[in-house]
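Go through this:
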Amino acid sequence: MSRCHNFSAGPAALPLPVLHELQAALVEFGDTGAGIMEISHRSKPFEAVLASAEARLRRLMAIPDDYVVLFLQGGASLQFYMLALNLLGDEGAAADYVVTGTWASKALQEARRVGDARAAWEGKAVEYRRLPTDQELTVREGARYLHYTTNNTIYGTQFHRTPKVSVPLVADMSSDICSRPVDTAAHDLIYAGAQKNLGPSGVTAVILSPWAQSQSRQTAKALPGGLPAMLDYGVAVDNTSMYNTPNTFGIFALERVLAWLEGQGGLSAMEAVNRQKAERLYAEIDRSGFWRPRADKADRSWMNVAWRLPTEELEARFVKEASAAGLKELKGHRSAGGIRASLYNATGLDAVDALVGFMREFERNNG
């Protein structure tokens, strides 16, 4: 078997040792006599998997003891609506959003279905090339929360700080969770689709502070008939993520990825590697005027490196020839074009070195 260098933005590369573990568990998991996808979510073996997944995520992210960890379904896109429904759904509440790209814009659109949601900063005018300073955020007094997206997969920007505001902070960390240490306690709600750094698609990690738990229950009480059960954080908390049948295989895969992360030395070790990968690639992009970086230097993402070439014809040629050379999934998002290399945890330095070598040869032939 020959594996390519996978730069997919998601579903993304998984660590090879984890894939081998998943392969074996599909046929027989432990001493159950069945595969991991065949055992009951109410069985002791799976309950142990769920507990281990939560414990590992708590250790890696230093999650406070009074915060709740959930493993839900529906991806970040469902959370766009679900979090607003739980935190903003009662009468008279307002929330502010930092709009730094496509996904932040979609989150705001969904929140507007629920209540008074507005942009505290809108980056469209600067083509999402940069992020706002804290001073540029116009957060309303009395806003229920401020929502921001920590990393923007399409435009290649990333917050390298936690915004300091006077209202509860909600973060979509889908594309950089567990790639570096974060101040979990500074946030009241964190959510992330698993398919970038945590595992396969189909699982969403949600972390709730005591305030978020309490606000959700208050909202449920305030609404006639309460919240829909499948969209109620309180129901998910009370049922330990198992109100309905969870994605058992996805949670097992997530638990194995978290174990791999711990084996790599945790998030500080991953931060060092991820910084090194990004610096190597950005150094090549900045080396000549042939490559045109999309994001401003101060706000460049370590996870998603986005750039352009002089013409769209050259971009198409680059993607085609790179794919033939075993460098896959480098085409930019359909809404933005260009080139994008996603450098999630499982994408190694060897992949970045191979890409840089290819870029130098491509520039020699086409520059």
